[in-house]
Amino acid sequence: MDIQALMLLTAEAKDTQELVTLVPWTFIIQIINLFIQVFLIKKFLFKPINEILEKRSKLADKTIREAREAQNEADSLKEQYESSLTNAHAEAAQIVSDAQKAAQVKADTLVREAQEEAAGIKARAAADIEQEKKKAVNEAKDEIGSLAMDIAGKVVEKEINEADHKKLIDDFISKVGA
Fold it and tell me: Which domain holds residue 57?
């Protein structure tokens, strides 16, 4: 049994040695096979993948460029809007200022006209008062004159003593007061 086991071990060692042994033609064919695989992978796998990656890169660059252009346009529109808003505020302030000035001028005109009208009314009232005063004085003079005539007539009719004279003066004063 020893011999058989030994033979079996030798056969196994030979098989193992054939597996570990480097055969030059097999090595060359494996290297050629490796180069063919690398060539095929490069041609049919890497090239399309690189083209897809390049297209994606170009698309991303285009999207970024468009976004920047849109941002610039939005900034320009914002500046125009702010400028328009500033102008609108200035115009509104000018309109309010003009309206206030016009209202002030109109108010001044109305006040001046009212003062002139009041002065005219005052002047007419003063003239009317003066006229009424003159009329009242004239009527009083006429009344006094007629009373004086009556008194003179009574004095002439009778002889006046001091008591009658005093009575006539009192009557005269009471009639003039009335």
Answer: 24-177
